[in-house]
Amino acid sequence: AKRGGRGIVRLFDEGMDEGIRFRRRVESGLSQAIDKGELSLVFQPIVSGAAIEVVGFEALVRWNTREYGPISPATFIPIAEESNLIHELGDWVLTQALDVMKQWPGQYVSVNFSPRQFRRHNFVGHIMESVLRAGIEPARLQIEITETAIFDDAERAADTLYKLRQMGFRIALDDFGTGYSSLYNIRKFALDCLKIDKSFIDGMGRERESAAIVHSIIHLGRALGLGIIAEGVETEVQVQALRLAGASHLQGYFFSRPVTADLAAEMAATRFIG
Ligand code: C2E
Ligand code: CA
Ligand code: CA
Ligand code: CA
């Protein structure tokens, strides 16, 4: 039994070593990814709930490594977030997104900013400078942040959001419902819309609880004058239910997976229904 016990301990240790080694490989790989041209952006359409036409796109980063093939952002973003790499990566994403936007007509692009980017010194000035340099209207850039980014230091976050909004940027609160936000606090933040997390959309047809949560978020958003983007919409049943419930915008595989900038440009004027 003792030997078995040690075996388990050893296995566990090796597992941890493997985890740390993987992290280090990701960190060092990521620090070279930009120079090696391994990063790219894809764009997923956001459609209006009313007319079902494409009004914007969410920019999502992709990392295709020479050594291991594609690595998911769900894996490498948290690792970048824990090191300073997130700043370089984030700057690349923003510059690239703005560059692509120059070739598009009126659609907005929604860019994800991690909590650490958002809390960076002079975040507002940094964004404004990038947008001015690119010659893009601030109203065409939607800044996506999560609840984690704003609820740690709510006062400072409220100030940052207020400034961004004053300058004309749109603000979306991402993954809404999964974090720690108090509904009461939501009204203190200058926001344009709430994005309902996919996990609630998934559950809509299956559990009454999820459907109730989705309806509550839509109701709350409307009462506060905010837009509602339902994300991870995969089926026609979800589309109908969400339109009926009053979601102002929909996003998900039902309409399109994230695609290259060229394909997105072709989609820019697409109507999906009617
Ligand atoms: P997110 O911001 O919640 O983005 C939505 C994720 O759901 C994306 O995964 C998207 O491809 C996926 N998705 C959209 N519609 C559907 C659907 O109908 N079904 C399913 N199964 N999935 C759908 P992705 O691209 O793998 O990104 C994962 C996460 O990585 C993002 O979650 C975001 O937190 C982060 N991320 C991606 N790109 C960036 C970036 O440029 N900067 C930062 N800071 N984070 C990013
Ligand atoms: Ca997002
Ligand atoms: Ca999300
Ligand atoms: Ca998410």
TrEMBL record:
It comes from the Bacteria. Signal peptide: none annotated. GO terms for biological process: phosphorelay signal transduction system. Keywords: Coiled coil, Phosphoprotein. Residues 23-272 form the EAL domain. This is EAL domain-containing protein.
